[in-house]
Amino acid sequence: MMLASQDRRGFLRHTGLFGLAISALTFLPRMAHAAWNKPAFDAKTMADAYKAMGVENPTASADVTLVASDIAENGAVVPVQAISKIPNTTQISFLVEKNPNMLAAAFDIGPDMLADVTTRIKMGQTSNVIALVKADGKYFTAAKEIKVTLGGCGG
Amino acid sequence: MPNPMKIRAASKDGVTEVKVLMNHEMETGFRKDSSGAPIPAWFITDVVAKLNGKEVMQAQWGASVSKNPYLAFKIKGGAAGDKVSVTWTDSKGETRTDEATVS
Amino acid sequence: MKRHHLCIAFAAVISAGAARAETDSSLQSIEQYREALRDGNPAELFEAQGEEIWKTPAGPKNVSLEQCDLGLGAGVVKGAFAQLPRWFKDTDRVQDTESRLLTCKEKLQGVDIKAIIKAPFGSPEKDEMNALVTYISGASKDMPVKVSLAHPKEQAMFNLGRRMFYFEAGPHDFSCATCHGQSGARIRLQELPDLTIGKGAGVAWTSWPAYRVSSGQMWSMQWRLADCFRQQRFPEPNYTSDVTVALSMFMAAMANDAKLDTPGIKR
């Protein structure tokens, strides 16, 4: 899918993100900006996505909560919220098992943030949605099936 | 120049909740136009949020974040009058920064 | 097209009996979904655009719309939407928000409004109109609908709207009432508001203009009505023509006293 014809360096040069990353490192030593994880966002299987993200042995945890409605009236906009009660949570990601590319968004949780983020994602069909939490280098998940209904004529 | 964001930030009980709406097409690259030609992917890849100039959150997004994205997150601390800024950068290298005052 | 045939097929099916319990829990879940969308309605982005368009000088005369009279006096935006459509003395016509905006664009800005009327929905011309309507509707949020039928032309417009609502035509003998003339009807999981009673009309009228999450577009009532006509296999009505204003007048007057939740958000 996205930017498939360009390699990462080309993408960076083209967009000027390279320069941004450098200046960020120079002026914001507090939080290093990771380069956009193209292999993870391009991955077409959960295994590939996890591999590209460096995820090993993710375990389901009751301390991770994925808040979403059971049914989404439209797959174009599906509200999702993930909350982690696991100490030292440093990243929260949303993945959709049955999307062409699983990884939707990854949030780095800095020390000044609560591990509680909300966004809206696209879903091509009914699927498990996974909230993936990184804490102390380990990975924890919460999953929920969200049904995507066929649209009617609309409002 | 991209259209502005809408940022709301409210402080309560030592936590500042930030809610952001962004103007963006978030094209997946999977869609076709009316003539059948594929519409190229075009989406926000990076989001950075700051409280009073200090970075508090960064995110990487793919094309499956919804069109006109919504984002909500919570910052420890923060008080009325503080400044929250949000910057996004997209796959074309376009960028937009907006700021709001915490209420 | 296939999808819309389905819509018509489904419109005739009213859920009942065994499927009821499952339907109720599904509707509950859908309500949860809608609630999650309400906080952070992207329509706010269009409101901001509309406000900027309203205040920015434009047209051959290079003036803004800030002196536009939406019924409460030149430049008064707050509360105006709650009382539209209404009769205007200067044009001697009953006008809805969009019709009135065209008058202002023509008179104040010297804009050739024929181009706006002809432009398809989704074009920049119409997008600008939709943003303006979104801004104006937001300035009446939480206010009760207060549409007057005191002027003879207002009453006549209401009567025309009611007649149009029940008017069966097209290859399928469809009318607005086919889908919106009974309570408890649905198309798949979308409840169809019964526009013949105050409650249903209230729910419908107070939620437009609306952000459509399916397309990421802002839809005005004019756009909604044009699409209803298409779904009924009627010819597309002219933008801001009397028949469209009449249907709005019918709905708005039926919705009187309902609280505006504008701009809305829809699937």
UniProtKB/TrEMBL annotation, chain A:
Q: Where is the Ig-like SoxY domain?
A: 52-153
Cross-referenced InterPro entries: SoxY, SoxY_sf, Sulphur_oxidation_SoxY, TAT_signal
Identify the Gene3D superfamilies for this entry: SoxY domain
In terms of superkingdom, the source organism counts as: Bacteria
Q: Name one Pfam family in it.
A: SoxY
PROSITE patterns assigned to the protein according to its UniProt record, in alphabetical order: TAT
**Which NCBIfam families does this one have?**
SoxY_true_GGCGG
Q: What is this protein called?
A: Thiosulfate oxidation carrier protein SoxY
| Species for this entry | Rhodoblastus acidophilus (Rhodopseudomonas acidophila)
The gene name reads soxY
UniProtKB/TrEMBL annotation, chain B:
Q: Which domain of life is it from?
A: Bacteria
- What sequence ranges are listed for the domain Sulphur oxidation protein SoxZ? 7-100
Please state the span of the N-terminal signal peptide per the UniProt entry. none
Q: Which SUPFAM superfamilies match?
A: E set domains
Q: According to its UniProt record, what is one Pfam family this protein matches?
A: SoxZ
What protein am I looking at? Thiosulfate oxidation carrier complex protein SoxZ
- Recorded source organism is Rhodoblastus acidophilus
TrEMBL record, chain C:
Q: Identify the EC number(s).
A: 2.8.5.2
InterPro entries reported in the protein's UniProt record: Cyt_c-like_dom, Cyt_c-like_dom_sf, SoxA
**UniProtKB keywords:** Electron transport, Heme, Iron, Metal-binding, Periplasm, Signal, Transferase, Transport
Which positions fall inside the Cytochrome c domain?
49-145
Q: Establish whether keyword Electron transport is in the entry.
A: yes
User: Which EC class does it fall in?
Assistant: transferase
Q: What is this protein called?
A: SoxAX cytochrome complex subunit A
Organism annotation: Rhodoblastus acidophilus (Rhodopseudomonas acidophila)
